[in-house]
Amino acid sequence: MRRTETEGRGPVRYGPPRPEPGLPVLPELAAAAAAAAGRSPAEPAGGGPVLLDAASGYWARRGLPVERDRIVAAPGAAPLLLALTAVLGGDVLLPRPCPAWWAPQARLLGRGVYHVPTPAECGGVPDPYALLETVRRVRAEGGRPRLLVLSVADDPTATVPPPEVLHEAVEAAADEGLHIVSDETWRDTLHHPRDTVLIGPAEMDHERVTVLCDLAGPFLPPALPAAVARFPATTEGAALRARSLDVLTALGATLAAPAAAAASYALGEPDAVVERLAAAVRLHARVAGAAQRALLAAGALVRPPQAGRHLYADLGPLRSALAARHVGDAQDLEDFLGERLGMPAPGGHRFGDDIDALRVRLSTGPLLGSTPAERQATLTAADPLELPHVEGALSMFGTAFDDLRAAAQRMEPPR
Question: Which of 21, 87, 72 is nearest to 226 (CA)?
Fold first, then answer.
């Protein structure tokens, strides 16, 4: 039995939180939520018409027009994925690594979960050939693969798959009769939107893809949980939505009025929301870039972060130095870096990666400041990297890894 089990630190209750925004709540969002706090009637299951119309407009502006009756809202993405998994039945296929909260939904329902390797150039989507091989192997063993969950702007790797890679994966899924749930939580947080081509699977396959977006990614604070799902405009899509609503109703998974009001406001994308999102994305991109440079300088392997508020590092090249500090696997690495950095540093095993691989997801939010005033100053600074509290946080971050690099170099045998 692993240490994580004996200490009661299992993968669900103690799973890693999604990357925090690290910024004050937008005042206009707080005002929208506060105005609804005194509302007596409950939101209907699946969301009220104001919220659903706002979600319809949000997707239409992204080239995915959808009617109100093809959308469902819930208090967070987890209940939506749970409902979809329950309705679709069968086993679930996930890329390796993937968001920490995906697999527990399927396991809670007693479904088989199979991880598929991702291509070398990105995370978020399965390698198409590995996907076909996995599906056929699962069927040969008596399984019933039914659902593929993927992400076009990935947690934990912070990468965006090239359109051709995604297209091949979508085609492979269609050939095997899989329904796709596309988690597009981070699609609005592209670090360099003019240089990054993001195309979702629903634009490639209109009949087999349900799109999921947790609004805590781009818009809302975690304290106001809300997510929306867009179902295919087909007879099967209508049936899938109706049965998913049944599950959400049975779970009592309805939005609180303040969260629904804040979500409706955010999805309408008024100027205040658009400007805050753009400023936050620029900030996290700058800090993520600085963190990546520090990791690369220390000898770690890190793909360039392209979206979100996080990056994914492989510290395998520093294994000897880490072993000298009694770090032999991803759980050890999580404990070691969490204490050393003073911030969450979930190991890759939390995301379905091999526990023996020394991989870790690191978030940029904790580097933005320790007080609301510092974080607000970071958001509005012309160059946030020059602020003393950000410069100091990044210096401490880099030093932690530089020390490992120096130790690894001392351990190298002489040439």
Answer: 72
Structure tokens at 311: 């990056």
What is the DSSP annotation of 257-300? HHHHHHHHHHHT--HHHHHHHHHHHHHHHHHHHHHHHHHHHTT-
* CA dihedral of 232, 234, 240, 243, whole degrees rounded to 10: 130
Residue 14 is encoded by which pair of tokens?
């103690």
Strand partners, 147: 92, 179
- Quick check: helix, strand or coil at residue 344? coil
Q: Which positions ≥6 away from 99 have C-beta within 8 Å?
A: 18, 151, 155, 156, 183, 351
| Chain centre to alpha carbon of residue 182 | 11
Which of 312, 336, 314 minimizes the C-alpha distance to 324?
Answer: 336
Q: How many CB atoms lie within 10 A of CB 177?
A: 11
Other CB atoms within 10 A of residue 271 CB: 8
CB 150 within 8 A of CB 95: yes
pLDDT in tens, 344-399: 999 999 999 999 999 999 999 999 999 999 999 999 999 999 999 999 999 999 99
Reading the block at residue 10, the tokens are: 């299992």
Asked whether 332 and 326 are in contact (CB, 8 A), the reply is: yes
Rounded-to-integer distance, Cα 167 and Cα 122, Å: 14
Query: What is the per-residue pLDDT across 166-193, written as a single tens digit (0 to 9) for each?
Result: 999 999 999 999 999 999 999 999 999 9
How far apart, in whole angstroms, are the C-alpha atoms of residue 362 and residue 284? 12
In the sheet where 359-363 sits, what is the strand order?
A: 301-302, 310-314, 359-363
Sign of CA dihedral 27, 32, 33, 39: positive
Q: Note the pLDDT tens digit of each residue in 63-107.
A: 999 999 999 999 999 999 999 999 999 999 999 999 999 999 999
Q: What are phi and psi of 324, to 5 degrees?
A: -65, -15
In the chain, what's the furthest Cα-to-Cα distance? 75
Using N-to-C axis directions, what is the helix angle for 128-140 and 163-175, rounded to 10°? 20
Peptide bond just before 156 cis, omega within 30 deg: yes
